[in-house]
Amino acid sequence: MEIHRHPALARMWAPIGTQPEVPAPGKNEKQVVYGGVNYATGRITYTVAPSKSGANFLAFLVVLITVYAGRKIRMVCDNGRFHHTKAVQEWLRAHRDQITIFWLPPYCPSLNLIERLWGHLKRTILANVLFRTLDDLVAAFRRGVARFNGHRDQMGFMFDHDDLQRKAA
Q1: Which of 7, 16, 83, 90 is the most exposed, having the fewest neighbouring CB atoms within 10 Å of its CB?
Q2: Helix (H) / strand (E) containing 2
Q3: What is the pTM of this model?
Q4: Contact residues for 129 (Cβ-Cβ < 8 A; gap 6+)
Q5: Local structure of 154: helix, strand or coil
Q6: Which strand (E) or helix (H) includes residue 4?
Q7: Coil, strand, or helix at residue 34?
């Protein structure tokens, strides 16, 4: 996910007859977040990098297998071009005993539950705010993640949807 200093806009409260104004920086800056959620516990593991690249994705994968050392990881992943670099594919082959990737069809973000987390953070933490610096933006993102990290019971926005519920027979 990309996070931008140029504010994402979302609905907000305002007195009748007034129009809220959200200032914007002259130049937009961004960071890229690579992340995963343990669907059983709600534990969020992520890295923040300056760009989308195979090297930055590999850095995230190294963090992931370190956090879950000794456990097999099964990760759902979209088909970003940087996911399929030669270096990434070689690394995945070399670590196939530690991690298996389930690739989603192209252009299907609704199939990846982490997109619900990213959307929630953008709407509730990052929207309608002009962050003075890129570091302030990243710090706000980190605080937002910390509110939910490991608290699956507080992540209804991610897990409590009809498409995820088992229907009683």
Answers
A1: 16
A2: strand 2-4
A3: 0.86
A4: 7, 22, 140
A5: helix
A6: strand 2-4
A7: strand
